[in-house]
Design brief:
The structure holds two protein chains of two kinds. By secondary structure, chain A is an alpha+beta fold. Chain A folds into three domains: about 30-135 and about 200-250 and about 255-290, Aldehyde Oxidoreductase, domain 3; about 295-465 and about 630-785, Aldehyde oxidase/xanthine dehydrogenase, molybdopterin binding domain (Aldehyde Oxidoreductase, domain 4, 2-Layer Sandwich), CATH 3.30.365; about 480-625, 2-Layer Sandwich (Aldehyde Oxidoreductase, domain 4), CATH 3.30.365. The longest helix of chain A is centred in the C-terminal third of the chain and has 27 residues, at about 545-570. Classes of the chains: A alpha+beta, B alpha+beta. The interface of A and B includes residues 687 and 706 of A.
């Protein structure tokens, strides 16, 4: 047996020297001889009929090669934009989506024309010369109004704006829970739209070889194989003739999973014009056109006993689809099936309603449904605790699924693999000094200061996904592939179908391979992001799946290599295979460790003469891993904030996160993922909000000045710790951690803020908790209580 | 995005800059630090026909005290104001405000003359200039600050007029500027300035209207002996701020009162 050396080691990411020294290979770093530049002409209106497009001036402009509109792509790009079979089979209205609008534009930013020119500036200049006559139509914005029968439609030819309406569990199923309730709390919880804002915006560079009829696409993407499948299909090219390369990708957060209009149009134009075409998304285009996350309203009711025993939940999710169904947009309905969180419930009734609006489509964004689920259940528990006068932690403990109950089948039939919620909570409380904090809070309140303590005992499901559970992953089997090649001289190349866009796979996967094969870490190279390399299909990276699924495929392929090497070693050592021991990268006969063959020696032999009878040459293996179940990380976060009631400002005092993702390959990478994830949760709680003008549907946050992403200065120190509860689902005992921070954090912050302002009688605060919003809420709450003795609070800082 | 095409000339003297501005005509713009102009050009919200780059003009880069006044050349960068001992000794509030402008990149390039000429309602220096009766000196004339900030992004500057200097009084008594914002590098949602000059308070507000505001009602209340809290209640008198993404009009008025009170209290402390 190989002794684990590298798995669990805190080693620096080997990709970082390249990435932090400006040597990353992003799309804008790449150029092809003879390339031309594309600038897209986009609808300035949320909803408009396209009356007439005049290209005369644009075509005549200096340096312009071509100007195209929808009709030019007929016969070049076939079919409509893909939408996965849901999750929600009860899809009602599904508008067809073509990559370029012809008769009608349904969101601000939808493409209506495109200019190709010799330089980027010439393309930009000429795009301004394209004259489009629009007839502005009423825009659909508000989700509830959109569902009214007399509402304007997001597309004029639609019967209604109802994208889907699916009851997962009917209301009657919780009649007994609500019938026996001693207390019922209700809340409407908003999830604002978020723009993913990766550091590297999207970009596509495409080149078509007219003679070989081969298409190469370089793009900033999380799953190149899916893009090959979609784009090859739309351009009627066999997958074998299409190569998609995504080298370094500067962040995705889910926004680079689905194919985009530009992903079809740029390759199509490379074929149409016979020249490579390059397009780099501007920041404003990114905020306007890259799919948004969240955009949901939840109406939630919780039934309980006065002693805090949870009975039932009823929830309706209204999801802002935007103008078209996002390719994987239906996945966000998993907010419903995860709504029970870490707790026992008699029953949960849930309904999801997808609503079409005149906005850019929504699609998965870091956490995709699980942050929303955590936010609503953890919010409702605090709401209930406040109602019955119980400490929110005591309420959680009373209702936790216990460590002894796993595997635990939750209310929607999913099996939670493992957990120990009490353990992570106890650790977080001890680090935060919870009891002391409560005393300090009481003390400060007496002095007119408003400290708030918020808890989030989050769980999630990730590691998408078992083919047997395809119904839970938007109808797609999300297994993973790997190929491990041991070259004659012992160096190892590993090809994975996952993709790294910040996750550090080049490091962590090499740690797994080095341990499994017993070769030095330095000899292992991890390759990803080129569909011409490795197994025939890969499934990409999202849903915290790379390690638990892709890492397992690598582990399995490595084991297959060891199995073959062991047979060969037995032959070389003239012993029976069952007498061979593999230890520290060397094979020896049981009892004779001094006469050993290293993996490198066996590899060399595998390509030469003298193989045993019937053994094929070579030392390499391919594996596909289909996980038996999803994996379920969990943890406990505690946020401490102080609210200035006079200005509504929120100041962080402390943030403690104790998370459990099973066995850890590289603690430093896990910490990095948690830091980034938690900050994205903070950012939703306090800062980010894609704002549209209500009447016109115009985007109001089109630059980084207006779309608020916090900087390091606004982020508090995060105290991380962990517990380790290995999953039984895979041999490595690992669970995903890429989204955990985001899933956990927004509600910890909002619970802390709500707790801080609870003396004013406030029971819920929506996101982002901006000073203006909080001030107004406090003012109104004070106004209500002011009728009695001269106002609550009265803190004058 | 890429700005629309424009002509570009570098000037090495005020004289040369004036000539270039005359030659290029009304659609030309002066390029100093460029931290407001370049983003506007990149978004094509501004499409000047020509840029006259004044960065090489050495004669506009100085901080001196002369005749009982603090004289600051138009090309003095935020970072110089922030670190200047002359400023710290003679008008410390200016150094403190500079310290809170943007981030390091902005402070290294952005200039005081550019801030004045741009006349953004959320600019911090214009508020100080207004309440301190500063003068904005150009290649043509001297403007009193109270006559300079006409409207949002609007000054009396003519197309060939170049801001050369800002002249402040010496004021090193009690002072405080509170810049209320969400992120460290943001513009003020509302800013409030309190500075004691010759025994009297000067009170001003940033971003509560199209131009900086001097709160004379607060000054008068303080002069007649009102407490900071009572006087600050007048900070929103007559204000009609516009709502934006960061704040409603009511909230800005509320902040005007709260921040004014805090600024006076903290300056006095």
């Amino acid at each position: 047996m190989a002794v684990t050396q590298l798995i669990g080691a805190k080693i620096h990411r080997r990709e970082d020297p390249r990435l932090v020294s400006g040597h990353g290979r992003y799309i804008d770093d790449l150029n092809r001889p003879g390339q031309v530049y594309a600038t897209f002409v986009r609808s300035p209106y949320a909803h408009a009929k396209i009356q007439k497009i005049d290209l005369t001036e644009a075509k005549a402009a200096a340096g312009v090669r071509a100007v195209y509109t929808a009709k030019d792509f007929q016969g070049q790009v076939a079919g409509t934009h893909p939408t996965v079979a849901a999750f929600a089979p009860e899809k009602k209205t599904v508008p067809d989506r073509f990559p370029i609008a012809s008769g009608e534009a349904a969101y601000q930013g939808e493409i209506v024309a495109v200019v190709l020119a010799d330089t980027k500036s010439a393309a930009d200049d000429a795009a301004n010369l394209v004259q489009v006559d629009y007839d502005v139509l009423p825009a659909v914005g508000d989700l509830e109004k959109a569902l009214e029968p007399n509402s304007p439609k997001a597309h004029t030819d639609l019967a209604d704006n109802l994208g889907w309406d699916m009851t997962l569990v009917p209301w009657e199923a919780t009649d007994s829970a609500f019938g026996s309730a001693e207390v019922v709390v209700k809340e409407r919880i908003l999830q604002q739209r978020l723009a993913p804002t990766p550091m590297e915006t999207r970009g596509v560079l495409a080149e078509y070889d007219t003679f070989d009829k081969r298409l190469t696409i370089w793009m900033s993407n999380q799953n190149p194989h899916f893009i090959r499948l979609f784009v090859g299909g739309a351009l009627s090219l066999p997958e074998s003739s299409v190569r998609v390369i995504s080298q370094d990708v500067g962040g995705g957060f889910g926004s680079k999973i689905s194919p985009y209009p530009e992903d079809y149009l740029v390759p199509a134009m490379a074929r149409m014009g016979g020249r490579p075409v390059k397009w780099i998304e501007t920041r404003t285009e990114s905020i306007q056109n890259t799919t948004h996350g969240r955009g949901q309203i939840f109406d939630v009711e919780v039934a309980a006993k006065k002693d805090g025993t949870l009975l039932g939940m009823r929830l309706t999710q209204y999801l802002d689809l935007g103008a078209y169904h996002g390719t994987f947009g239906a996945f966000q309905a998993c907010a419903c099936v995860m709504a029970g969180g870490a707790y026992h419930w008699q029953g949960i009734s849930a309904r999801t309603v997808g609503v079409l609006t005149n906005k850019v489509p929504t699609d998965p964004y870091r956490g995709a449904g699980r942050p929303e689920a955590t936010h609503l259940v953890e919010r409702m528990l605090d709401r209930l605790a406040q109602e019955i006068g119980m400490d929110p932690i005591e309420l959680r403990r009373k209702n936790f699924i216990q460590a002894s109950e796993f595997p635990y089948t939750q209310n929607f039939g999913l099996v939670i693999d493992s957990g120990d919620y009490e353990k992570s909570l106890a650790k977080a409380m001890s680090i935060a000094g919870y009891d002391e904090l409560r005393k300090r809070q009481a003390d400060l309140r007496g002095k007119g200061r408003y400290l708030g303590i918020g808890v989030s005992t989050w769980i999630e499901l990730c590691g998408f996904g078992p083919s047997a559970l395809a119904g839970a992953t938007a109808g797609v089997a999300l297994v993973e592939s790997a190929q491990v090649r041991v070259h004659p001289t012992g160096s190892v190349a590993v090809y994975t179908g996952t993709h790294s866009h910040g996750q550090g796979h080049e490091t962590t996967f090499a740690q797994i391979v080095a341990d499994t094969l017993g070769v030095p870490y330095e000899q292992v190279e991890i390759r990803h992001g080129d569909t011409n390399e490795g197994p025939s299909f890969g499934y990409g990276t999202y849903g915290s799946r790379s390690l638990a699924v892709g890492g397992m495929a690598i582990h399995r392929a490595s084991q297959r290599v060891v199995d073959k090497a062991k047979k060969l070693a037995a032959h070389m050592l003239e012993a029976a295979e069952e007498d061979i021991v593999f230890d520290q990268g060397k094979f020896h006969v049981k009892g004779s460790p001094e006469k050993a063959k290293a993996m490198g020696e066996v590899a060399f032999a595998a390509y030469g003469a003298g193989l045993p009878e019937g053994m094929e040459h070579g030392l390499e293996a391919v594996a596909y891993f289909d996980p038996p179940n999803l994996v379920w990380p969990f943890g406990a976060h505690i946020a401490v904030v102080e609210v200035d009631p006079e200005t509504g400002s929120v100041k962080f005092e402390k943030y403690v996160a104790v998370d459990d993702c099973g066995n850890v390959i590289n603690p430093m990478v896990v910490e990095g993922q948690l830091h980034g994830g938690i900050v994205q949760g903070f950012s939703q709680a306090l800062f980010e909000d894609v704002a549209y003008d209500e009447a016109s549907g115009q985007l109001r946050t089109g630059t980084m000045l207006d779309y608020m992403v916090p900087t390091a200065v606004e982020i508090p120190d995060i105290q991380l710790d962990s517990t380790v509860t290995p999953t039984p689902v895979n041999d490595l005992g690992v669970k995903g951690i890429g989204e955990a921070g985001t899933i956990a954090a927004s509600v910890a912050v909002i619970n802390a803020i709500t707790d801080a302002v609870s003396p004013f009688g406030i029971t819920h605060v929506d996101m982002p908790a901006s000073p203006d919003r909080l001030w107004k809420q406090i003012k109104e709450a004070r106004g209500v209580s002011a009728t009695s003795a001269n106002g609550g609070g009265g803190a004058q800082a | 995005m890429i700005p629309a095409a424009f002509e570009y000339e570098r000037a090495t003297s005020v004289q040369q800059a004036s000539e270039l501005l005359q030659r290029f005509g009304e659609d030309a713009k002066v390029l100093a630090g460029g931290h407001s102009l370049i983003p506007l050009m990149r978004l094509r919200l501004s499409q000047p026909s020509a840029l006259v780059d004044i960065n090489p003009i050495k004669e506009l880069d100085y901080i001196t005290v002369e005749g009982g006044k603090l004289r600051v050349g138009a090309l003095v960068r935020h970072v110089q104001l922030q670190n200047s001992d002359t400023v710290k000794q003679n008008l410390p509030i200016l150094a403190e405000v500079a310290d809170e402008v943007g981030d390091n990149q902005v402070r290294n390039l952005g200039s005081i003359g550019g801030v004045m000429a741009h006349a953004d309602a959320a600019g911090d220096y214009p508020t100080l200039a207004l309440i301190l009766d500063a003068e904005i000196v150009t290649n043509k004339r001297r403007h009193a600050a109270k006559d300079f900030f006409k409207d949002i992004f609007t000054t009396p500057l003519e197309h060939d007029e170049l801001v050369c200097e800002v002249v402040f009084p010496i004021a090193n008594g009690p002072h405080k500027y509170i810049k209320f914002r969400r992120r460290l590098f943001d513009w003020a949602i509302v800013g409030a300035a309190a500075q004691k000059v010759d025994g009297g308070w000067r009170i001003g507000l940033t971003n509560v209207g199209p131009t900086p505001v001097r709160s004379t009602a607060v000054e008068q209340a303080l002069a007649s002996g009102a407490s900071p809290a009572d006087a600050a209640e007048h900070a929103s008198d007559g204000l009609n701020p516009s709502a934006d993404l960061r704040a409603s009009a009511d909230y800005k008025k509320h902040l005007a009162r709260v921040l004014t009170r805090r600024a006076i209290e903290q300056a006095s402390a």
